[in-house]
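Fold this sequence, please.
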Amino acid sequence: GMSKFSGRTALITGASRGIGKAIALRLRKDGANIVIAAKTATPHAKLAGTIYTAAEEIEKAGGKALPFAVDVRDEANVQECVQTAVNKFGGIDILVNNASAISLTGTVDTEMKRYDLMHNINKRGTFLMSKACIPHLMKAQNPHILNLSPPLLMEPRWFSNHVAYTMAKFGMSMCVLGMHEELRPHRIAVNALWPLTSIWTASMEMITHGEGAAGSRTPEIVADAAHAILGKNSAEYTGNFSIDEDVLRAEGVTDFDKYAIDLSVPLSPDFFIPAGKYDHCFAQSKESKASPEPFQQAKGEIGEVIHTMKALLSADLVKKVDATFEFVLTESSGADKVYLDFKNGSGFIGEGLVHGGADVRFECTVANFVKMFKGQLSPTAAFMTKKLVIKGNIPKAMILENLLKKMKK
């Protein structure tokens, strides 16, 4: 209830929008003071929300907020932010390291200024903010640091397509691995929290050009999970790499439909989710499972898929996607290749390969190809469960996936 976080102060980085803001609003509901430490003080061209609009939302809801324009890369600025928070609220009880930069690019395509941005915000920023808050957390009654970062899975598939981003996110998780042990004597809990599914936020919208909503959940699921973690005894609950749904199930939550954006579509797993363990979570909740089809039948259905897709091609679609895709379908004579051109004119789909190589290459079985195009298998789920290999431009693959979801409606 209201008392749980009453009088406690939470400093949340990147809280002007998205997951950070959802966590801020959730803790505010239980009486926490919120320090909105984010860089957007003037409105961003493509993303809604500033530290002031977020603070206003919190104050409207009857809470106390301190908007502070902070660049987590700047040591003096970070120290000033923390000191201002302590002066206003008397201390810091909770630090949520949520600020993050993302670029899903391979080695050659990652500009060094993007590399530096990701490493300076995600990894160095998390380290610096923690360092600045620790002296104050030591005085708190139930001190917590929570990093929005993934479980440390040393599998090539999480590195091969976007090694720079993965290193930066895993750096945040390494802070958890080190600091939870280091700070145990001071009973400061240090945990990581990561969503099971993709979460629909303004930055996701920017990455997928508005095509990523269908298989996603709302930020509230992460906020509810963060709220649960931050309410736990800091001397006991530390060093965990938690997944939002697991945390909430342990709290007795059974209704996850309320977090879905579109119940008719299978959920898309987030990056860095371990294979196998969560497969059952990504089923389409409102439709029956299709029985696996015999191979010959599936083969005939490739033609059907191509036929269906042809009807959907349009110049508008081409403008939205602007990429070429090829599917290499295994378990046959090796001649099964399908390509989609969503780059030129009003698009094209046919058998064979894209001349000069496609932007994205998918490798899977014929049966799974058909299932994906029929909406019985989410491409992300197929990728996570190793039924689908994806090479090339990952954001474009996400755009294609979300178009497929829309087609199913």
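The radius of gyration is 23 Å. The longest helix spans residues 112-137.
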